Amino acid sequence: MFVAEVVGNVWGTRKHCSLCDKRLLLVRPIDPMTEKHTGDAIMAVEYTTGAGPGSIVLVMDEGGSARSVLHDEKAPIRTVIVGIVDSVVSGGKVKKYD
After folding, report:
1. What global pTM score does this model have?
2. Within the chain, which residues score under 70 in pLDDT?
3. Which CATH topology does 2-86 take?
């Protein structure tokens, strides 16, 4: 799992049936304390969190667990947004997000 910023939306004219009612977003990993980007943007499934561009999110990046979150063991996904981050505490320091 990692913390990321949602940097965009993904649209597809055709989706696998298990993704039809789910949004696809681009997320870019960040250092949660400095908000500096630590990697390239990847696509993630958004499901019931309400996340959108600009949100800081917790991302699960492991296929079996991601499919378990969606309750669909045949879904062709690896990465899913599992929550919106309100704050992070590390080394006694607190970083809050709006």
Report:
1. 0.89
2. none
3. OB fold (Dihydrolipoamide Acetyltransferase, E2P) (2.40.50)
